[in-house]
Design goal:
3 helices; 49% helix; single chain; globular; mainly alpha; 53 residues
Length: 53
């Protein structure tokens, strides 16, 4: 978010979620779904890649 100069409120709006939900997403002690991570990645111009080895 810092790299893209986007606020948490704006990122939440672009993800179609609340600021509180985004706060939970960014909390390292909480679990999130892959679909939520993928949405967050798209908002900041990235893609999510999961690799199992």
């Amino acid at each position: 978010m810092t790299e893209r100069s986007i606020s948490k409120a704006r990122m939440a709006a672009q993800m179609g979620t609340s600021r509180a939900q985004l706060g939970r997403l960014l909390d390292p002690s909480r679990d999130v779904t892959l679909s939520t991570l993928a949405r967050a990645a798209r908002v900041v111009g990235r893609t999510l890649r999961v690799e199992l080895q």
